[in-house]
Write a structure and sequence with these properties.
This protein has helices at about 40-50, 55-60, 100-105, 115-125, 130-160, 170, 180-195, 195-200, 215-220, 230-245, 250-260, 275-285, 290-310, 310-330, 345-365, 375-400; strands spanning about 5-10, 15-20, 70-75, 80-85. By secondary structure, it is an alpha+beta fold.
Length: about 400
């Protein structure tokens, strides 16, 4: 496909509005002659753009001061080819342009022929198909150079990290360590620990949870028999309480009433009570030691509530929650396992049950101090669950790591 003629060139360099006059049809040989600076090079640039489709050859020569885009119309044997300011309607890759640009790129500049010029000339000689192969070779060469550069950089980096008198090749020949990942992880943890030293120093360690022990005084008081009370006085009091159906609260009622007995007159009926054996029995029975015992029972209820009440359960759960937060932090640096504790509700229920059983026994003892409350069934059932819970708390505390700061 040959060019027939150039119809119009607008806003390309010196060819601001150029149209042919007369017969400008190209022949087998067509000579274009003009003075320097009249547009011959511009014409070659237009043809080079038509060959390759590269619009930069034209847009780079846009006429200075022109507001309209460059336009070109060329007549060919296959019809008119147009450049509309953005692209060609069709290209002509079969064109060859031999001009100063070709010489500069492919032959020589000045007194020497450089490598890039030899490569371009080589492409021109071997043809378009082989040029594509040559470009692939160039791309592979470029990648090889990049990889070689990267390899050299990595080698320098490795050499800078190698400690001791050992070369890179010797280092690469070292045997593989199957536990290297674990060792690296351990060293990374040590490094993190060193970097976080200030935070570690200020971080609170895990704390043991309270393990409430039932006061031994509970069992001592519950089994008190008051041996110092005369047997006859005890029997008289028991018979009197039984006769008047005053159990189980009669003892407390009489004990309080004895405090109102002044002189020998009954504060209830006003009769003379001097010499009455029952009153003497009351005096022996409800002695100072008895009153002290009553006071001990009152204090015992407070001890049970303090040891097994809601406050101690709250403390256990607060310590456990704080330990869970601390565990997440400390397991970054040390290895330990912390057993699971029962839920807060389970702990509360077990301790409340034991507390209620003990308080009931104390109340029974308070109403009948000479009797030993029967706690065989209820107490043993609560005790089994309680001891199991206490054992879980002890195992938990044994697993709490000892963490101290320098």
């Amino acid at each position: 496909m040959a060019i027939r003629k150039i119809i119009r060139v607008t806003n390309v360099g010196r060819l601001k509005n150029c149209t042919g006059k007369g017969d400008v049809t190209f022949g087998r040989y067509t000579l274009v002659f003009a003075e320097n600076g009249r547009g011959k090079t511009t014409l070659c640039a237009i043809l080079r753009s038509l060959k390759s489709g590269e619009v930069g050859y034209i847009l780079g020569r846009r006429t200075l001061g022109s507001v309209e885009p460059p336009k070109v119309e060329i007549s060919t044997e296959a019809g008119t080819v147009t450049f509309n300011g953005n692209q060609w309607t069709r290209t002509m890759p079969e064109l060859d342009i031999f001009d100063g640009t070709f010489v500069a790129e492919n032959v020589y500049v000045g007194d020497a022929v450089d490598t890039e010029q030899r490569r371009n000339l080589y492409r021109f000689i071997i043809g378009d198909d082989n040029i594509r192969l040559a470009r692939q070779i160039e791309e592979l060469d470029r990648k090889i150079r990049e990889l070689s550069t990267s390899i050299r950089e990595q080698e320098r980096l490795i050499e800078s990290r190698i400690q001791g008198a050992i070369t890179l090749q010797e280092f690469l020949g070292l045997p593989e360590d199957g536990n290297i990942n674990d060792k690296i992880a351990a060293k990374e943890r040590e490094l993190e620990a060193a970097e976080a030293a200030q935070d570690i120093v200020q971080r609170k360690g895990l704390q043991p949870v309270p393990v409430p022990e039932i006061p031994q005084s509970v069992f001592d008081i519950l089994t008190t028999d008051f041996v110092e009370i005369a047997a006859t006085a005890e029997q008289l009091v028991r018979d009197h309480l039984c006769k008047h159906k005053m159990k189980p609260h009669g003892e407390a009622w009489i004990s309080e009433g004895m405090g109102y007995l002044q002189g020998d007159r009954c504060p209830f009926c006003g009769q003379d009570v001097s010499g009455l054996a029952l009153i003497e029995a009351y005096r022996n029975f409800f002695s100072d030691s008895y009153q002290a015992f009553k006071s001990e029972l009152a204090n015992l209820e407070e001890d049970i509530e303090r040891t097994l009440g809601e406050d101690i359960v709250t403390t256990i759960n607060v310590v456990r929650a704080e330990n869970e937060v601390a565990r997440v932090f400390w397991q970054q640096y040390i290895t330990f396992d912390l057993p699971e504790l029962p839920s807060a509700d389970e702990i509360f229920n077990v301790m409340r049950r034991m507390r209620d059983v003990l308080l009931e026994l104390v109340r029974q003892k308070h109403s009948a101090p000479l009797d030993r409350p029967d706690h065989s069934v209820a107490y043993r059932a609560a005790e089994e669950d309680y001891e199991k819970l206490m054992q879980q708390l002890r195992v938990y505390n044994d697993s709490v790591p000892g963490i101290s700061h320098p």
